[in-house]
């Protein structure tokens, strides 16, 4: 079965960067997009972008250009998201989610458990 | 960006009630609408995809429908385990966008 295991909670300082991981198992890692989604406390969900591990192609929400960088390591079936120049607005839970195909599109369907990132001095 | 207007933001209903949550799309999204359930401290779980298709393992009391630009998630008979936040997602156009969520509680 599809399993996505994300890395642990992070406490980071303003202005710094953080890299969180999402290790996939139970399917062919290189065959499905991996999406990333942000959820601030008490708020809704916000789509960040996806990476296709098969060739490294990415698609970002313009809002996160320069903020988030998506990468993937095929050898370890792990996707990564680096967040840079962190501010309090980046404090949130970040989810990875494997895509599923439906009628010509791919949408996030199987979700990891989430990583809480707290930005504080 | 496509705006997904979700209502109500919160809902309190009795066990056994029929419950409906709605998302209205600001542009045509066809049937590219997914409903997720999120229990406290957990990650979202796919419930309905393609606007009307029940995901595997989801109880049959859940259903999805579409009327024009309005998409609805209905629980035919509310059970205690259905207490959760519910989110809709459009996946026809980038950036993908979610509704603002509905918090469902038991009265």
Write the layout of secondary structure elements.
The complex is a heterodimer of chains A (121) and B (107).
Chain A: E1 3-6, E2 10-12, E3 18-25, E4 34-39, E5 45-52, E6 57-60, E7 68-73, E8 78-83, E9 92-102, E10 105-111, E11 115-119
Parallel strand pairs in A: 2-11
Antiparallel strand pairs in A: 1-3, 3-8, 4-5, 4-9, 5-6, 7-8, 9-10, 9-11
Chain B: E1 4-7, E2 10-13, E3 19-25, E4 33-38, E5 45-49, E6 53-54, E7 62-67, E8 70-75, E9 84-90, E10 97-98, E11 102-106
Parallel strand pairs in B: 2-11
Antiparallel strand pairs in B: 1-3, 3-8, 4-5, 4-9, 5-6, 7-8, 9-10, 9-11
Binned, the helix content of chain B reads under 10%
Q: Average pLDDT of chain B, to the nearest integer?
A: 97
The main pleated sheet of chain A reads as:
7 strands, mixed
Going by helix content, strand content and strand pairing, the class of chain B is mainly beta
- Reading the helices and strands of chain B in chain order gives EEEEEEEEEEE
Question: Unreliable runs of chain A, pLDDT <50, ≥5 residues?
Answer: none
Distance between the termini of chain A: 40 Å
């Amino acid at each position: 079965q599809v399993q996505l295991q994300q890395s642990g909670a992070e406490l980071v300082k303003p202005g710094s960067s953080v890299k969180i991981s999402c290790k996939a198992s139970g399917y062919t890692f290189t065959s499905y997009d991996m999406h990333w989604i942000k959820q601030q406390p008490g708020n809704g969900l916000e789509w960040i972008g996806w990476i296709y591990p098969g060739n490294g192609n990415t698609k970002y929400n313009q809002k996160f250009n320069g903020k988030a960088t998506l990468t993937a390591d095929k050898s370890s079936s792990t996707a990564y998201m680096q967040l840079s120049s962190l501010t309090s607005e980046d404090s949130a839970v970040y989810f990875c989610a494997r895509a599923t195909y439906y009628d010509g599109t791919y949408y996030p369907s199987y979700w990891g458990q989430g990583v809480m990132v707290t930005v504080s001095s | 960006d496509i705006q997904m207007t979700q209502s109500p933001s919160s809902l309190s209903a009795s066990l056994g009630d029929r419950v409906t949550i709605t998302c209205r799309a600001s542009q045509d999204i066809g049937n590219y609408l997914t409903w997720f359930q999120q229990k406290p401290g957990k990650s979202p779980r796919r419930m309905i995809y393609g606007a009307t298709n029940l995901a595997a393992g989801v109880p049959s009391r859940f259903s999805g429908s579409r009327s024009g630009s309005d998409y609805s998630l209905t629980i035919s008979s509310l059970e205690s385990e259905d207490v959760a936040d519910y989110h809709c997602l459009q996946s026809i156009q980038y950036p993908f966008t979610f509704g603002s969520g509905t918090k469902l509680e038991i009265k």
